[in-house]
Amino acid sequence: xxxxxxxxxxxxxxxxxxxxxxxxxxxxxxxxxxxxxxxxxxxxxxxxxxxxxxxxxxxxxxxxxxxxxxxxxxxxxxxxxxxxxxxxxxxxxxxxxxxxxxxxxxxxxxxxxxxxxxxxxxxxxxxxxxxxxxxxxxxxxxxxxxxxxxxxxxxxxxxxxxxxxxxxxxxxxxxxxxxxxxxxxxxxxxxxxxxxxxxxxxxxxxxxxxxxxxxxxxxxxxxxxxxxxxxxxxxxxxxxxxxxxxxxxxxxxxxxxxxx
Amino acid sequence: xxxxxxxxxxxxxxxxxxxxxxxxxxxxxxxxxxxxxxxxxxxxxxxxxxxxxxxxxxxxxxxxxxxxxxxxxxxxxxxxxxxxxxxxxxxxxxxxxxxxxxxxxxxxxxxxxxxxxxxxxxxxxxxxxxxxxxxxxxxxxxxxxxxxxxxxxxxxxxxxxxxxxxxxxxxxxxxxxxxxxxxxxxxxxxxxxxxxxxxxxxxxxxxxxxxxxxxxxxxxxxxxxxxxxxxxxxxxxxxxxxxxxxxxxxxxxxxxxxxxxxxxxxxxxxxxxxxxxxxxxxxxxxxxxxxxxxxxxxxxxxxxxxxxxxxxxxxxxxxxxxxxxxxxxxxxxxxxxxxxxxxxxxxxxxxxxxxxxxxxxxxxxxxxxxxxxxxxxxxxxxxxxxxxxxxxxxxxxxxxxxxxxxxxxxxxxxxxxxxxxxxxxxxxxxxxxxxxxxxxxxxxxxxxxxxxxxxxxxxxxxxxxxxxxxxxxxxxxxxxxxxxxxxxxxxxxxxxxxxxxxxxxxxxxxxxxxxxxxxxxxxxxxxxxxxxxxxxxxxxxxxxxxxxxxxxxxxxxxxxxxxxxxxxxxxxxxxxxxxxxxxxxxxxxxxxxxxxxxxxxxxxxxxxxxxxxxxxxxxxxxxxxxxxxxxxxxxxxxxxxxxxxxxxxxxxxxxxxxxxxxxxxxxxxxxxxxxxxxxxxxxxxxxxxxxxxxxxxxxxxxxxxxxxxxxxxxxxxxxxxxxxxxxxxxxxxxxxxxxxxxxxxxx
Lengths: 260, 747
What we know:
The structure holds 2 protein chains of 2 kinds. By secondary structure, chain A is of the alpha/beta class. Chain A is built from 9 helices and 9 strands.
């Protein structure tokens, strides 16, 4: 039996792509993707192929489920009673900016409902849709995979120039954001580059918090399941010392550093 | 003992409670609501630690000895049947045991003496032949009475598993005596009132009037015996309690009398914590005791409550696993005039879960309202995160719908106004199996026995929603009828042969009565109907033509994802079956109420139920209570809670049980975030109209390890449907079912 994500209301809207988002999954008790309790929408499709990706099944475009925006608004509105501690809706992925055009509609509707909106992005896409989307985005969670362009490309398959340009744009429009950094032993935890990252972002007044996301291997089996090779087979999870070292470095640059 | 005057404590604020038996009025006039945090609390006293160690050793012996430490096979347990018993007298500030010895179980054969005999035999003990002869030949039990009156139809429903766990061979429980009355008024005054009530019960001598006169006479006898029970322990129960220690002791003696007389499935304590706070606060103000001594009183009361035991046979474990006693205590809540009943004693009760470690008993139930003081809400959440030992109920909802602010929780989740109202417990019916009657022309899907008449055969193997619903309605009508008839017989006989005189002596004469029906398998029914409605479901028949499996093509939404397309089916079915139950006359004109609660019987119900159209295979356990089916609530915890919160309390006034399990990390990264998030979850669920929530915060790995090494986890407590159990006391099947539940573990 298929315990489907699918909603019957979907049928009526099928084909009208502006009214649907192609999603991977929904988590209504998100406590790690922004403040408070959050309705987290994981969108399908991502231009990056991060070596450590915990959800490689979100990478390919178009392979998710079409989910009606009205249904999302309804579910998110039903959760208002739980948003007491600054909670709201986070769109994550995959890379949500790849569906920015439809997200504009969603975020507008959410703001009409008075719901806090967060965009969890790798910053690779910044077109006019994304810029419009940012107008109704309360908080950006910007994932910077690496500060060095070459290593960034090694980790994600793409360079980091667009991500850094995205960050500059956030600074320009003074949009509050949290910086998120996945700390992978021997791949992204070289102290030199942690300092470089700190130097680059230290002057951003709109950067509220840096979140260290320790590396975990929970996604490894998904790579195998997809028939793809997992490049970090031999990489271990961070030791507490590695995490506290990174934390102490970032604390030299940012007022709030948390380990997720 | 010092009198009030000698203590120099200030007198209580008066009110109508002085002229009539009215504990609520006393509480409202004298309560000191507390808005602060938990920093005032104390750890356990040296005396308490000594007692705790002795009790833990005794509990370990009990576990090692197949769950029973010892049995008294000679004495029929009554209020005064046993001499005084102590754990270690010099360390006890609150005294009293059910028998002379800690964890020694007593026989209460009036519910059904063959059960007691079997329970003895299962533990290698022989029931005293004289007791056996007495019940075989001369004394009739509740169980004998019920089976004399049962119809062939009821027996069939019972043996095929349509009605399960009926209190026809064990005591019904669920009646809460107002144990506070003993402390506030003393026995002499209570007897005076009951004698006056009896004098007023004059003709015409109808059945009901004669029965009530006999019952009140029995209550008066019980009160006299409770006074003697006090004398056995050197306590002057004839008069009111004069100080905090006496108030706690008096309340416990009243409860002890109840559990010496009765072995009801669930025997709640009620709502004593805020009442006792009044005495404690008065003594604290007068400097008679300090906070450490106040905590010592509550720790020792709670330790005594944890040591309550009943003698059960092993089969009882199928429906009520883990040897529960349901000493349910309701804590907190608001008042009708806009105030709240959170006191320092609310904190002290919860603090016992640290001072004495986690425990299923007493069944701590917080009456939650988003408007309760933040300090209390956060302490509750912290205790939940640390111990998984608390359940929560929606106080705003119950106060508004039931019209009372002085209530306890009967058994697991059921509202009961203390001293004013009682409840006739009715176990539950298998609604999923009822749906299968609708698909099989009224035949049992497993045995092929014709159970009910009037259900037409299906016109086609491809299930049609409207046709199934029409048949289901016929099946529900018939099952409800037989269910009500069985309940009427059971409670008639229980009153006749095993009347709860000790508890009823502490309840108003002629109280309101609810009869508490229940259903199991709601999520299976909702998902099955959703499959039939939204996908293509084809029945597969065996050689006898019985539908034994289903071919499901296409997708359908499942209950538990905040999707109205299926959730509304659960709402509608609940309302419909509740209406069917209310259509028939009841014993003592009791008011019908229904619960969606399974205790641990969801496992055994599953065993007795064939494959269902939602794709569930034959024999697979149901989800507990009103929970969505395991693993089908794929959108996370809040969507799941929102689905359950849609069920209308008005359609299930006996309670809607929901059990949430999550790993600690899911709640947040650190303790303060976890506490804040859990508080927000509770505020959210109850403001959306949810009725009851069990909260478990633990890792699955821990449970797996506890299955392998039970000896390392004597206190591991987990909330199941409406109560908590020691995880290691569950059967392997039940443990596996707990593990297969949706653990919200996204991080």
